[in-house]
């Protein structure tokens, strides 16, 4: 039955898999029959950047999962990723976002099993435990709610939907022999003859130098507040005189950055800042006001005006999915406001799906 399922799923794939082909051709029947007891978990680069690797491993271990194998790739190249491009999204902006995700840092793959034999397929259980891809909609008991993850793209973990996809997704990390050896160990795990890898084993032997102990906050709102704060700083640098209204906005943002409120409170903060900007020297209709012009030398006024417009675009969440963010961020570069790759990816992947990510 399992071999038929593998072949059926293989026919649905949008790109071929050498590992799947070789496994179907070479694995013995008992190994194929036991494939449903093997799970695969991918930890994305954002899991490392946000220092959540150990938290994910602990949550999985507490739920009764045993770690059989681990492989870490420092960062993928676009050439390495090219062989896994699904035809349905090739050359699309979605694929560009996926590529940017996996080239920005390390990715870890773990083969896992349960600590005891259960009737439910392990991949189905992993899917339930990881939770819905959008953190806001993930159930409280799931991994993506408890940590919580950043957004629907940068959601820490990936697990394949079925065993055929497991063989395909494991291909960059493990060969078919690795998969077969891991399956052979599962019965010994269930009988208590071996224990698998402990979290300490994984940290010391495989993740040494990868785990960042700093508790960095890469939430969407923290990145957004920080970037707008830097924009206001640049406007002040360009100005001939102190602009009290901009300084007031900076103070509001500084206070917001020091707090980690719930989502609703964050949206209220955004709205309060935007309402304040509506009352300032340039309104939301982008009218040029001479008093603002007088704060700057002629050569600096254009940049200051562009930066002000961008800050307003960033704070206008409701329309953000319709904006040309690539052009907007290029304007930021022109105005000498720097943005890190991780910040860029967090902002743009959230903005483009803002209605579902934040439900404004």
Q: Can you offer a commentary on this structure?
A:
The chain is α+β, with helices and mostly antiparallel strands and 360 residues long. The protein has two domains: 204 residues, 2-Layer Sandwich (Alpha-Beta Plaits), CATH 3.30.70.141; 138 residues, no CATH class. It is built from 20 helices and four strands. The protein has a four-stranded antiparallel sheet with strand order 2-3-1-4, sandwiched between helices. Helix 17 packs antiparallel against helix 18. The chain is elongated and about 80 Å long.
Summarize the structure.
With 360 residues, the protein is of the alpha+beta class. The protein has helices spanning 2-12, 18-26, 29-34, 45-49, 53-62, 78-82, 93-103, 122-130, 143-146, 163-170, 176-191, 199-205, 220-238, 244-257, 263-278, 290-293, 298-315, 325-334, 341-351, 354-357; strands at residues 39-43, 65-73, 107-114, 157-158. The longest helix is centred in the middle third of the chain and has 19 residues, at 220-238.
Integer count of domains: 2
Record the strand order, biggest sheet.
2-3-1-4
Strand content: 5-15%
Using the coordinates above, name the CATH class of the largest domain. Alpha Beta
Q: Which descriptor suits the 3D outline?
A: elongated
- CATH topology value of the largest domain: Alpha-Beta Plaits
- Name the CATH superfamily assignment of the largest domain: Nucleoside diphosphate kinase-like domain
The secondary-structure class comes to: alpha+beta
Largest sheet: 4 strands, antiparallel
The radius of gyration over CA amounts to: 24 Å
